[in-house]
Amino acid sequence: MVGAVCPVLRSVGWYRVEIGRSLFRSGVTEGTMRVLFLAGHAGGLEMINTPYYLIDKQKLLGNLEKIAYVREQSGAKALLALKCFATWSVFDLMEQYMDGTTSSSLYELKLGRQKFAGETHAYSVAWADDEIEEMLANCDKIIFNSIGQLQRFAQASQGKTRGLRVNPQVSSSDYLLADPARPFSRLGEWDPVKVEEVIEQISGFMFHNNCENGDFALFDKMLGTIEERFGHLLHKVQWVSLGGGIHFTGEGYALDDFCARLKAFSQKYGVQVYLEPGEAAITNSASLEVTVLDTLYNGKHLAVVDSSIEAHMLDLLIYRLNAKLAPSSGEHTTWCAANPAWPAISSANTRSSVHWPSVIACRSSMPPVTPWSRRTGSTA
Ligand SMILES: Cc1ncc(COP(=O)(O)O)c(C=O)c1O
User: Fold this and answer.
1) Most CB within 10 Å of its CB: which of 98, 201, 283, 308?
2) Confidence (pLDDT) at 155
3) How far is it, in rounded angstroms, from Cα 112 to Cα 96?
């Protein structure tokens, strides 16, 4: 029983690590680990050997219902961003609440085409010559990241619905790697004059400049900036994708304001709006279940678990995030850290060493979890 294992993560036992924003990227869970689906009663889970990912379908459903609400109220279409979540075992549920998928590589695209009903969008920062044919054969819309790519594949993609990624040079991203507003960003075309020159070749735009943005006012403001800079061009296209990174399924999000804003935007420019939720679709619905195999003390209390950051929580490494563990009440309280940036952390083979300092360092403070609550999609 999880709650009985150890209140302060100090002894060998079973623990839960929250799933980060893109842990399920590209089907890693289907390929390398068992995924367990929880559709109600949680009893008996202690009999299953860790490590495994646990997806709580009830929680997933809560997110999907919010997505359905937004579609209904705003008229926007919602495409699952497979770069965030590609666990196709639950696509049969998700496709009932969403309009299709979007992708960032050929194999994601094919996964979306083969396993998820509805529209299949193709986007990549750059396509290679030897994949363009297969890519075009599997998508409904193709979104080029640059005018250079649009021109390179102009002939090959003739007759296809084409779009261009536009970089509005404002974003809510804290991560340099994914921030279109950073200097020298590769993510889309920023110059409205240049974009206008190719407007006849495309019918839509994609703006992806939100990241873990749970603040409707900020979303609203950045959309306003997009309108100021590109409004005259928005009137010339038929569809606009506003990308992912909008945390509209989060607790307390101004959902009705969001719907009204999307609807007004769509009506003003006469465009079909698309959203590309990844994290918003799966937030709070999955966890990585692990067992603490050993504990030791070396200036700080250490716990060695039967999983590894490299294999199972790669996002922690890429984005330098802390793992969030549960149960975590008691002497050392709340959120524990497994930040690979900290020198005390080490990993050998597939074992990661997770430590929890007495003073817990974390990027955002969150309340302790109850044994069966699961949170995903860290907003840290
Ligand atoms: C173009 C695009 N769309 C959608 C997403 C999904 O973003 P999120 O999982 O933050 O909602 C991403 C993620 O990086 C992306 O690059």
Assistant:
1) 283
2) 98
3) 14
**Rounded distance between C-alpha atoms, residue 377 and residue 14, angstroms:** 21
Indicate which atom in ligand 1 lies nearest the CA of residue 247. 11
Look at residue 140 and give its three-state secondary structure: coil
Q: For 357-362, which contacts have Cβ atoms below 8 Å and span 24 or more sequence positions? A: 357/300, 357/301, 358/300, 358/301, 358/332, 360/332, 360/333, 360/334, 360/335, 360/336, 361/322, 361/337, 362/322, 362/324, 362/334, 362/335, 362/337
CB 273 within 8 A of CB 75: yes
Domains and CATH numbers, the chain: 2-51+285-355 (no CATH), 99-276 (3.20.20.10)
The predicted pLDDT at position 57 comes to 94
Which residue owns the Cα nearest ligand 1 atom 7?
Answer: 244
What does pTM read for this prediction? 0.81
Residue bearing the CA closest to ligand 1, atom 15: 244
